[in-house]
Amino acid sequence: xxxxxxxxxxxxxxxxxxxxxxxxxxxxxxxxxxxxxxxxxxxxxxxxxxxxxxxxxxxxxxxxxxxxxxxxxxxxxxxxxxxxxxxxxxxxxxxxxxxxxxxxxxxxxxxxxxxxxxxxxxxxxxxxxxxxxxxxxxxxxxxxxxxxxxxxxxxxxxxxxxxxxxxxxxxxxxxxxxxxxxxxxxxxxxxxxxxxxxxxxxxxxxxxxxxxxxxxxxxxxxxxxxxxxxxxxxxxxxxxxxxxxxxxxxxxxxxxxxxxxxxxxxxxxxxxxxxxxxxxxxxxxxxxxxxxxxxxxxxxxxxxxxxxxxxxxxxxxxxxxxxxxxx
Amino acid sequence: xxxxxxxxxxxxxxxxxxxxxxxxxxxxxxxxxxxxxxxxxxxxxxxxxxxxxxxxxxxxxxxxxxxxxxxxxxxxxxxxxxxxxxxxxxxxxxxxxxxxxxxxxxxxxxxxxxxxxxxxxxxxxxxxxxxxxxxxxxxxxxxxxxxxxxxxxxxxxxxxxxxxxxxxxxxxxxxxxxxxxxxxxxxxxxxxxxxxxxxxxxxxxxxxxxxxxxxxxxxxxxxxxxxxxxxxxxxxxxxxxxxxxxxxxxxxxxxxxxxxxxxxxxxxxxxxxxxxxxxxxxxxxxxxxxxxxxxxxxxxxxxxxxxxxxxxxxxxxxxxxxxxxxx
Amino acid sequence: xxxxxxxxxxxxxxxxxxxxxxxxxxxxxxxxxxxxxxxxxxxxxxxxxxxxxxxxxxxxxxxxxxxxxxxxxxxxxxxxxxxxxxxxxxxxxxxxxxxxxxxxxxxxxxxxxxxxxxxxxxxxxxxxxxxxxxxxxxxxxxxxxxxxxxxxxxxxxxxxxxxxxxxxxxxxxxxxxxxxxxxxxxxxxxxxxxxxxxxxxxxxxxxxxxxxxxxxxxxxxxxxxxxxxxxxxxxxxxxxxxxxxxxxxxxxxxxxxxxxxxxxxxxxxxxxxxxxxxxxxxxxxxxxxxxxxxxxxxxxxxxxxxxxxxxxxxxxxxxxxxxxxxx
Amino acid sequence: xxxxxxxxxxxxxxxxxxxxxxxxxxxxxxxxxxxxxxxxxxxxxxxxxxxxxxxxxxxxxxxxxxxxxxxxxxxxxxxxxxxxxxxxxxxxxxxxxxxxxxxxxxxxxxxxxxxxxxxxxxxxxxxxxxxxxxxxxxxxxxxxxxxxxxxxxxxxxxxxxxxxxxxxxxxxxxxxxxxxxxxxxxxxxxxxxxxxxxxxxxxxxxxxxxxxxxxxxxxxxxxxxxxxxxxxxxxxxxxxxxxxxxxxxxxxxxxxxxxxxxxxxxxxxxxxxxxxxxxxxxxxxxxxxxxxxxxxxxxxxxxxxxxxxxxxxxxxxxxxxxxxxxx
Lengths: 327, 327, 327, 327
Prior knowledge:
4 copies of one chain form a homotetramer.
Chain A: E1 10-16, E2 20-27, E3 32-39, H1 46-63, E4 70-76, E5 80-81, E6 86-88, E7 98-99, H2 101-109, E8 112-116, H3 118-129, E9 138-143, E10 147-153, E11 156-157, H4 189-192, H5 194-206, H6 222-230, H7 234-258, E12 262-266, H8 273-287, E13 297-300, H9 305-319
Parallel strand pairs in A: 1-4, 4-8, 9-12, 12-13
Antiparallel strand pairs in A: 1-2, 2-3, 5-6, 6-7, 9-10, 10-11
């Protein structure tokens, strides 16, 4: 049949983060046509959230070319699984239990909806529009409140049998080590994500009487510690040196298993790379197996965090089949 | 190892056509940074051509960010095979025999070079930046001097065991029919590509004394015949009606074998679609197997021919691995 | 968790043919542990058929190691689609409309069930255990009451967007030619499958008064015509010569599109290959595009028809995920 | 072209182990037609080894149906890379440096030769003929002198960008821990492969005066320690308990990254599973991330080590294209 009018050249990419939910219309080449956002935390009830998000997206469509121009929707959300289309027990979101978000949005919008966790979507963004473009085997690490990852094997993202692959933050680096929020001990996340970095700072401060700018802060955070680094604070520098060393060990193990072309660091804490990258690299090269030593590129993402998520979500939207009531 | 400076974000796309050779620097998102061209036919010796093309590309690189920013090179060329990297017995190019063009260019430029035939590259262009974006099973038809095709099966281009797949123009539609330039009889190309369309016009003119604008033309071509169509010339209209009907039959056979989501028409003659699309569709739906009747989109490409080839060649450049003297 | 007892090393392969339904327990290496059958045509009601088949399979399991040893079930059935798990409007089976056979059997048996059409399953059988083992691009043709096909592209079976690929029998070889049972005209099946071969014989007999053993037959069939060939009957020989010539043209078109390593002929009528293979090959090489001339192997399957279907169905059973009430 | 005689239905599988080199003719279904072996260590010069192996294979072919029946050759060898076809710095083989074994054998035999390391080949054997048949995501662990691994992602073996993936034995479990033979510290192999198990025994014996059967042994080995386990020796039991606990931690990390359906233990030391599997499982479930807890099958291979390698090598032989002087 003649199909001129049936080809839709735009998708919607949605990034549900702890603070904000951003939604944007994106074209085939990654141009953002329109973009808006609202506070995630205003909607403690998932039903209210879905209503707000659906109405916002519909309005955005109407104001930018119309519903008929949109092919499908991709959503980035912590703790989401692409295989099930659901969010499961998200520790950092207000909605608990198993939430079939893809189906909920599809029913409201009448469009195909794919959802995946933030590390998975970050990897899709790097593959489609970032440093991983043209690579078939690489790892993307997401450094923030949590520590996620996603890797590509021969050009496709690895999801695993159950769709739960990539839990790099919950590999153990110190047996019987720090208690992690997940209930286990010694998880990498307990040393290298936000809370772990703060805990390292607290431990270092408690272990000495040496002066430190960190002692003057009302509240410690990775960002504040990084800012003290830039002022030359010795303990702050040691915090990130330790973090880099531990992360380098974890990455060396990951790389020894996968033999990737590159490891790309993303997420808020990757912006502090200047303070941890040297120790990360030293630890990585010391701990990685010899056959791949000096052969893995360690990169900090060149996409800004926000754009990567929205673009990655748009790439996800293109990967799912169009939805049709008549099929 | 720290890899900040090792990620290259641009490629060169080259379109070698019968008349012109175009070369362009293209970024990850399909933005053309620089583009230039020279007449292909000025270089009847392949060695001279390779020298001209290499020097032109090197100069373009120097003027636009430098050699170090370029990852790899993709080339679209009639009669080229991606698997061998060679042009073989190109009927419409000045260089005869088996020409290992990919290796010749790589040796001059020190960069990875991939080459593929024009229909293959058109399909990559439609997949990366055109109507086929997001589709996993589709056919691209290239209508011009020759009649080529390429199809995607489950998201990858089908090349076949020997890399010679897609010879749609040389499938037989009329046993013991018109002699084709390839030596066989009844090939679709002998009815639906440039020479075949002209031959149909000549046959119709010879079969009647009816007046026709076509009789006033010094030389017939698909473009001239289309222009007579737009002036309402009955014989010109009949030429394209017959062409569409025959092409519709060929496409129905193709679609019955493949069950594609869409068939996308590209190439110079696709611009005459308004004169052949109705008869094509009628013939297609009549001849296609019932299970897929009304289920295949027939589209005319929305990319312009030139851009599609250069962008498709850039997509090809991203698909091959980077070249390194140290690997 | 410890999984010793959870690994199941056997599957059930089912071949639903027009006359008989065969079901067998097959191990990983293609050894048939047990096999039985019943007449398909005894069950004109699909519900009765499903009851009979389910009970038969359950009994076979009990007598051969138990239900717990069986991983999953694969079913070969004319007009079945793997993507939907349904039989749709099967012209040669007693059950009409859209029948979700995979779901019906799964509900009765509590095991994962995959179904696919006979040509698809034949191709899986040739790939797993026959001449196509180790090939990544090949075509399997099924010659019988109908004329089906399936091809592999880069190691996976091509199903197409809608799952209806492979309708080789309904590609048109003679525009406005013989009326086919499908409603179209000039279909290859109308010349090269059972009824078409008989029709050719009738036409040849009607066109001449020459004596022929065929005139003495109460009823013509491909098998009877082949048997007259072996007695040297000139008209019978001409029937298969014409069939081979037409099939060779169709295969040449198929091969020009796909560039396969091999084409494998299966099905009842392939046993008459000695009477049509010479003309098929002559026609194929004459009509195929030059770049692949002399490069495609034309083979008659070495597996017996029956075994290929049961083994192919077992290969299908391994390709689907295990079913679990707890997943 | 008619291809009856061109289809070859057998391959040769070769297993080069530290002590013995085994070579066998295997058919499509994994039946071993003929098998023989010679001591690897008799050939300290690679050239002599290649001569011996080539002549042995040629003679085996002649005695079993002839050279013409063999399609290709697959070779399992420690430290081999499939991507390069070479053995690189094998620590446990007599031949040093970079040895292009695949090319050396192909030149002698005129047949396509594929080679891969033992864990890779084990995984292919489990996939084709063992517990992983029908799985798309699984890990195979090889426990012996070394500690290797290979995983499948979506149905294909992951090799990584450089082809060096799977170095599970050289992931670090104890930072600054035991010195490994590879030069690094704290490698899993230094605790869970042959030498590491013996070292654990020696450390436990040195730490106490408690009586133990182990003290009476002239030389400790994993096999001897296991045999003392079966006699109830407390220290021997503790050796394997510790080994299982450490291996369980390493596997938990691996599984948290991959979300596999199963982990299959192979190799000589897997035969001592009864002494380490309980502690392995306890440690695994304690250390694995919650989303996949209780969802990964831990299996000991049911294929015998020897058969798995030869069959896996035969599966490898089928995966490479046939070699032809005329192509």
